[in-house]
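Per reviewer request, we include the raw input and output of the structure prediction for the construct analysed in the revised manuscript.
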Amino acid sequence: MTKEIVQVIGNGDPGGGTTAVLTLATLLRGAGHRPLIVSQHDSYLLREAKLQGIAVHGMDFSSRGGAIGNCRALASFIRQRRPAVVHAHGNRAGLPVALAMKMLGRADRPRFVYTVHGFHFLTKTGGAYHLARMAEKFAIAEADWTNFVSDGDAQIARSRRLLANPASTSIIHNAVLAEDFPARADAPAEPGIAFIGRLTYQKNPLILADIAAALRPLAPQMHVIGGGEMDVELRDRVSAMQLSDQFVFHGQQHRTSALQIAAACTLLLLPSRWEGHPITVIEAMHMGLPVIASDISGTREIVVQDDTGFLVHADAASDYAAAIRQVLTEPGLAQRLGARGRDVANEKFSAQRMLQANLAAYRLASHGTAATTAPCLA
């Protein structure tokens, strides 16, 4: 008999977390389990999962203040389904799932695994910082097992005293299914730079205009793939700096379309201010795209300096431009970096490695006292 494994994520929009959950659910099904994804009503993730024949359940995660209501709905849902594991991704899902586990009590709850996809409370101040930190600490304490997608996140958890039981944790790097990438020419006809991400403060999109200006007289096309609250501000900045002929705004795209656009470019640019373990970078490496990214925790664990790409201070537009110029003008460099990136991605960020690590976490979670009554996974 197969076991149902519920994956819960609050934000079902296109992005790294969504890709990670959909990839894991696909792998679990291939391994003989029954995945079920819980996410935002009518979200991109639920639509994609349905198309792939994966069971889904919609809820309203749009307001963080709705965690109390969601925890009741989740507790009722879990009682009805009786899954082997509930795996929450990110604190928007982690907090209501942790509260639901409290409501269920020891006898009725399944194993609860929590994956941290970056600590967003670090960017907050005052009361918001303390509340967000407490929410993370509560979810980690209530979980039978906690995964971190990067060594950096694990170090933050230790230094900020978020771990109730450090022994019940593991680091499981993100991965993607390598077989679904579009074909890519070794040398694109025209040089192009791909930026894939939400246009939010975290992703640092306004610096794209400064980088383009610093690249002059080189004028490669800057392909901006994604949408968000800073979309208009970025467009206005590009126009004011007279760079409109160099920018192509594609808006939010289906993952397949986003990867096809990126595959026609020369390199991927990701100037984020913070990341957990960005899947976009792993996708680029699988496609043989060199990566130029901010030198931050998470990204630093994927990109190898001067080997698969370049790491730059997050706000140094001139340094990004210098690295891009080198990739665009030095003969053979883009091909060498891309080929090495593909090798590293296949070796370190394979989907099967991620699947086996998560299955191990599910088994290890059963050793906690809170999960002793849960059914055992094969």
